[in-house]
Write a structure and sequence with these properties.
The strands form 3 sheets. A 5-stranded parallel beta sheet has the order 2-1-3-4-5, sandwiched between helices. A 4-stranded antiparallel beta sheet has the order 6-7-8-9, with helices on one face. A 3-stranded antiparallel beta sheet has the order 10-12-11. With 230 residues, it is an alpha/beta fold. The longest helix has 20 residues. The chain contains 8 helices and 12 strands. It has 2 domains: 123 residues, Response regulator (Rossmann fold, 3-Layer(aba) Sandwich); 97 residues, Arc Repressor Mutant, subunit A, CATH 1.10.10.10.
């Protein structure tokens, strides 16, 4: 079941959206405050789509989109009473996938949501799974299956994207700049320690001895290299 996060401060509209999405079979979480919405940035792996109002109390939808994009590429659909071309471009530049001006037709909203979900699903489904030791990364479900213990772990979308990048560049040194430009874009760079933290997490998850990695290597002053030894 798809889980959708709806961030909208107008009670009647929020309730209408949630009710109709649930009637369509979606699981829905609603939030009506911008500052509270920011707390969801670390939980975005739980959601397959975000419906985000631009004008919110305390923190604007634009700032929320910027914060979300630093953590995830989950599809974001903006809703806004500001429907000018300039406003739409501003939202899309921040990384939103679609922009629907208010007032809108309910059927159009549901159709746009359906299209975004299907597009995202197809992108993941076409990716070839990655096998590292006894573990298999299933891109379509964001899961890591440990075939030796039959246990599973859930990854974030950003972790999946970084693994896909390393898989495509296997045995090559990938610079920090390339990772940042590919996954975060030109105006959404994370802090310098962010990528290091991803690598540390990958080592804890995939390496038998994280201090002596076989798969995820740091190349001092350059970047990182992913290898799959025989």
């Amino acid at each position: 079941m798809y889980h959708i996060l709806v961030i909208e401060d107008e009670p009647a509209l929020s309730e209408m959206i949630q009710l109709n999405l649930e009637l369509e079979g979606y699981d829905v979480t609603s939030c009506n405050n911008g500052r509270v919405a920011l707390t969801y940035a670390e939980k975005l792996s739980q959601y397959q789509l975000v419906v985000l109002d631009v004008m919110l109390p305390e923190v604007s939808g634009l700032d929320i989109c910027r914060a979300f994009r630093q953590q995830s590429d989950v599809p974001i659909l903006f809703l806004s009473a500001k429907g000018t071309t300039v406003d739409r471009i501003a939202g899309l530049k921040l990384g939103a996938n679609d922009y629907l001006p208010k007032p809108f037709d309910l059927e159009e909203l549901l159709l746009r949501i359906q299209i975004l979900l299907k597009t995202n699903e197809k992108e993941l489904a076409t990716a070839e799974n990655l096998i590292v030791g006894t573990k298999e990364v299933v891109y379509a479900t964001y899961e890591v299956h440990d075939h030796s213990t039959q246990q599973k772990e859930l990854l974030t979308k950003r972790e999946i994207e970084l693994l896909q990048l390393f898989q495509s560049k296997q045995d090559q040194v990938v610079s920090r700049d390339e990772i940042l430009a590919t996954l975060w874009g030109n105006d959404q760079y994370p802090t310098g320690r962010t990528i290091d933290n991803y690598i540390l997490n990958f080592r804890k998850l995939f390496e038998t001895d994280p201090k002596n990695p076989r798969y995820f290597h740091s190349i001092r002053g350059v970047g990182y290299k992913f290898t799959l030894p025989e």
